[in-house]
Amino acid sequence: MANITKKVSWSSRADESAAAGESTPLLNGSEQPQHSRQLSGGGSLFQIGRLSTVDLEEEITSDEDSLRGRPKEIPHNEKLLSLKYESLDYDNIENQLFLEEERRMSYMGFRCLEISRWVVCGLIGILTGLIACFIDIVVEQLAGIKYQLIKENIEKFTETGGLSISLILWAVLNFTFVMVGAIIVAFFEPIAAGSGIPQIKCYLNGVKIPRVVRLKTLVIKVCGVICSVVGGLAVGKEGPMIHSGAVVAAGVSQGRSTSLKRDFKIFEYFRRDTEKRDFVSAGAAAGVSAAFGAPVGGVLFSLEEGASFWNQMLTWRIFFASMISTFTLNFVLSIYHSHAGDLSNPGLINFGRFEGDSVTYNLYEIPLFIAMGAIGGFLGALFNVLNYWLTIFRIRYVHRPCLQVMEAMLVAAVTATVSFTMIYFSNDCQPLGPESTEEYPLQLFCADGEYNSMATAFFNTPERSVRSLFHNQPGTYNPLTLGLFTLTYFFLACWTYGLAVSAGVFIPSLLIGAAWGRLFGILLASTSSGGAQHSNAIWADPGKYALIGAAAQLGGIVRMTLSLTVIMVEATGNVTYGLPIMLVLMTAKIVGDYFEEGLYDIHIKLQSVPFLHWEAPATSHWLTAREVMSSPVTCLNRIEKVGTIVDILSNTSTNHNGFPVVVQVLESDEPAKLCGLILRSQLIVLLKHKVFVELARSRLTRRKLQLKDFRDAYPRFPPIQSIHVSQDERECMMDLTEFMNPTPYTVPQETSLPRVFKLFRALGLRHLVVADDENRVVGLVTRKDLARYHLGKHGLEELQLAQT
Amino acid sequence: MANITKKVSWSSRADESAAAGESTPLLNGSEQPQHSRQLSGGGSLFQIGRLSTVDLEEEITSDEDSLRGRPKEIPHNEKLLSLKYESLDYDNIENQLFLEEERRMSYMGFRCLEISRWVVCGLIGILTGLIACFIDIVVEQLAGIKYQLIKENIEKFTETGGLSISLILWAVLNFTFVMVGAIIVAFFEPIAAGSGIPQIKCYLNGVKIPRVVRLKTLVIKVCGVICSVVGGLAVGKEGPMIHSGAVVAAGVSQGRSTSLKRDFKIFEYFRRDTEKRDFVSAGAAAGVSAAFGAPVGGVLFSLEEGASFWNQMLTWRIFFASMISTFTLNFVLSIYHSHAGDLSNPGLINFGRFEGDSVTYNLYEIPLFIAMGAIGGFLGALFNVLNYWLTIFRIRYVHRPCLQVMEAMLVAAVTATVSFTMIYFSNDCQPLGPESTEEYPLQLFCADGEYNSMATAFFNTPERSVRSLFHNQPGTYNPLTLGLFTLTYFFLACWTYGLAVSAGVFIPSLLIGAAWGRLFGILLASTSSGGAQHSNAIWADPGKYALIGAAAQLGGIVRMTLSLTVIMVEATGNVTYGLPIMLVLMTAKIVGDYFEEGLYDIHIKLQSVPFLHWEAPATSHWLTAREVMSSPVTCLNRIEKVGTIVDILSNTSTNHNGFPVVVQVLESDEPAKLCGLILRSQLIVLLKHKVFVELARSRLTRRKLQLKDFRDAYPRFPPIQSIHVSQDERECMMDLTEFMNPTPYTVPQETSLPRVFKLFRALGLRHLVVADDENRVVGLVTRKDLARYHLGKHGLEELQLAQT
């Protein structure tokens, strides 16, 4: 995953170039309080000051201030929390406009909406399946041509002895493909790098990663993944499918493409974060389903990564999208392979059928499986640690696009060279039987009728290699071949993950694991062959151990739990392995977590994303909302001067996104009470349409602002700078009553952090108002306030907030 | 399911007898307001009156009052909502004691807790698996003896012509078993009747069904299910496993048995609703897993029925329990069948392996499958409608235990007679091949070397019948046999469900569906045999159609979605059928829902349980918290007189369970402000331990009340009547500060119903305080306030509350 190879981030280069039109950063509350105080001194803001009881926080904040004063070139660091990520708003903004619309809608209206949700899910499934087909077919064709060329070349030069020319041919071919793939990613859409799974995880968690669900990203991703797989890198095309599915979902569900400037005027109801997220979940599930032929696994993946609230109908719809996706893939590929109607290709990666005797296992094998799980966990942690250092190095030194392209090309050349060398020096010749399934058997220095077994592993697309490790007859590989292959492929895959190319880590992990798993099985069979009391066919079937090894290695790297178990079970097409795979994944996770986090979590942390986990850290009960919240809060009056609003929105140093709306009892000195919450995006739309009290009075025929106006602007609201407000208009007043959310969730100051966290996470909130017992606003809790506490080695730690 | 055959309910007979010691009914807020007003007139209560703004509700309430004035003998009716069900409290009561404990706990402490959670889940899995084994083995043994006896008898009398004696023998045997099963259920534990799935659904939804997770219930359930299956009723032993698993979980996780008066002093931390519910979810999943060999299906079942908030670690633990359960069952049964180590019995019902050619399907078969789904949906709805009428009849006329036992015995006798008659008049003789898998082939009037095919369907445990319908060679059954079998079994099963015996509806549904599905397949094959262009082995394999038919029928009856798909897929051991099964279940659900609800939902509604669905009714946006809430609310002062508290708790006419705690600024006329929430159960413990301010002063050495005291009393808190408070003590004061939840969730009065609903459901609340903008209590929303709105045929309907 090359998506963090730049100092800035997954996406910030484009932010710099397009800062005006894009993603106003979230920066709420207590950071840089000097500024907000100056502003409040200016008198144009209504601000509720700190209470005397928050002295503790005052101290903490001033400590933080000094840290925040550090120069801007702080590198990405997992001890920081970036302030540039906005949150998504999964809480419906139930303002008057919304409620009126909902009340107008009849029961039939809701039924129609429900039906269109199903239609959208069906479309998502079909399109995701088609994209998977497209990738698969193009990769097969291009890789076929490439391997055929090289094979002929090698065969020509094996006799005459000019094999270095073959090597050069191979390297140049790989080189070219990878260069194209890296250039489009690094120069046109850096967010398309890597597998996209961390980004989708963040999106489903509620963090807005800019441009992650754009059409352009999808196009670059699809082309990029084709280039990198054909380019012979140690990558898979499965991870990117999940991202692709998510993009498809986000596009289809909105009924328009902002990139193509086409609006089909359908599905307008779905133009808000809540609905869009549900569809993106379905898209991610459809992607998993297409990648692995695992519809249930896809649903569980979406839930494991995204769901904060389980809803039966939603899950059922997600499952529908998954099923349709795998079915479409299956159907189209069956036509492509000229067996129309034979639905035997459920996913991009096909583990092949595990049937007959090889599927059974015995009770005494379970400890062996658990041991393999531990090995997988350890190797996975090693992989992650190495990749972590590599990523840090990349963040520091390889952050310019041209450097990234050069690194990718270097990796491509090295991969080709290493592969060639390994094949060249390998002596593992195997007879080429009539039932052999090799696509490109390389004879090389083997006798006639034999082929080089190392070449099966290297001179092949990774999917085919995995399948041959699972299913080839015992004896097809000798242990030395497997050992060398594991070693080289481990380092190649580790180096590759994080390059500026679109590619996934699932298949390389499976391949590494399958290789050492098969090795494990062979060694086991050889140690016990003396006794020979076991039926060898069952107990030391190397294919079975290859499968367990693959599960262990993948689990050790990505640390997924239930969903990965189900994906593996579905990909093998057999539920018998359920228990061993679960035990192996569990062991791998426990062992791996002891050393290092999962690969995706590492990359999320290195991006300083304010990611909310399932629960508040265990030992955080001593913290309350008072310590956690940001204060003072910039509040707006229910009827507020336009000038004030423009000033607040233009204040780049604070850049708040949500504003509690308060109401002051006229001619009394009582403190103002909370009466609602309004978002920056809503204010922007109001300013753009000049919804001012004075104008409404003068022009009675003026069209009333509707929900449609907000939906049309979603999700790319214009920045405040693009809105022109004249000096006269600045003196007008705006009435926010109709547009604010009149019932924001609130908590008292004494609420403990776990309680705040639970409310925030379960409801997918973006802003949570902290109120005192007079219903006055005393603070605001946002995502970063909660995400910054985490359990480190020395108890509860607080991450620093940084404007990276 | 006989659990509603009494006028009162699933459980109320025992409530009447043990009213003092058990389940003080929930009766909160607005019902019978005259009483509470009289009380408040008496001056002993602090009550916040209605605000002038709630006139609308005043009107509604007075309408309701007249309805509530109806005589008490209103029968159970799906238009009523019973007030006798308490809610469970899934929101942690974060009072000072709890926070102190959490803050004292180190990180290691939390780790240990986490480990013990895993241990508990492992134990739940093992015990559930063992119970499943026990049921399976006992049923096999007893059924084996029974069928052997009858077979010998029939064979003896076939020649001599006294078959009526065989019939009598059969009927008497069935009769006896069913009588025993019905007596223990009807007289000792009525809640053990039926499959228990509706009860577990309610429990996981948050409704406290008395005695549903007691040890006694488990014992009766296990014995009952053995009796009813051996008694030859049209029932399965799978549904009850889910209930059994839940009971095991509730027992193990508490580390004690109140019934056995044993406290192991372990797992004390888990003695609260939140933790217990999580374990019960795991237990239900383990039950599904043991029943069907479907660990993933089990997890999904738990989530579909119970989860309000998905948590990765929790789900992973539930999956662990599921896996262990199916593994234990598998392992023990492998020993029992003398193939130790061969793990091929994953569940109680084994669909057998679908392998080889029979598993594939062609694209053009999909419309056929969908048509079968529609048939299944229609037949399922018919089943449900018939059962609904039958249940209404039972509620009205068959509510005394002895009548229930007699009905069960009648059904047993009729079942035996009908089966016998069908076999007797059947002419369907099939050759008894060497590979035949019949356990008890009945020759009857067939030629030597042949057996009666109708007997395979009837003269067998239902599980075996299902398997033979799935896997017997094409031609084993003739269409007439299948048609007659479907018809009779449909009505028998429909009559049986709802009897006072422990039994499930899964297997009968599968059996009916498999029979007509196979019939469908045979007819299909015969219509197309003219053309013969298809390879018949694949396309009209009757076993495949039997499977699809079984899925359609089961889906049409129970209307489960994702979980049922996965259960079916796992039970067949083959993922190939995923798509057709999903399409079939989807069609069955859509068609079935058009006519009637699912069977479990019907029974839940007939019990008037305040069941919360996933979302508020679609057209409920015009309702706000103001209309929904109960008011006036009985509030307590933070420092309250003991006498007042005792009086409030003793008031049987209101019987509130949660009390907002308010604080009045001394010597001011400002209204009292909300400062916490305290539960009846907590007050009871406080009164029992005489935690009075005066006593604390006089006896300084007095032990401080700890969380442990509350946990020891959980979940069977004594009734207020059992607590003696002297006249002197009545004058003492109680300080609630330490014990109340100081940060209850609140909503403003303007909050829309869907918003209130979402908060309530997502966080699993029991009481939600409605506060005005001065933070004064104006109302309280409880489960029944939300559950009473539902979408009927004429838009939004409101259920009547009734003290049934």
UniProtKB/TrEMBL annotation, chains A, B:
Keywords: CBS domain, Chloride, Ion transport, Membrane, Repeat, Transmembrane, Transmembrane helix, Transport. It is a multi-pass membrane protein. Residues 1-12, 25-39 have a biased composition (Polar residues). It comes from the Eukaryota. The keyword Chloroplast does not apply. Residues 1-43 are annotated as: Disordered. InterPro entries: CBS_dom (IPR000644), CBS_dom_sf (IPR046342), CIC-7 (IPR002249), Cl-channel/antiporter (IPR051280), Cl-channel_core (IPR014743), ClC (IPR001807). The chain crosses the membrane at residues 118-139, 167-188, 218-236, 279-302, 314-336, 366-390, 402-425, 480-500, 506-525, 545-569, 575-595. It is found in: Membrane. Its main location: membrane. GO terms for cellular component: lysosomal membrane. Residues 740-798 form the CBS domain. Gene3D superfamilies: CBS-domain, Clc chloride channel. Belongs to the chloride channel (TC 2.A.49) family. PANTHER family: CHLORIDE CHANNEL PROTEIN CLC FAMILY MEMBER, H(+)_CL(-) EXCHANGE TRANSPORTER 7. This is Chloride channel protein. It comes from Acanthochromis polyacanthus. The lineage of its organism: Eukaryota, Metazoa, Chordata, Craniata, Vertebrata.
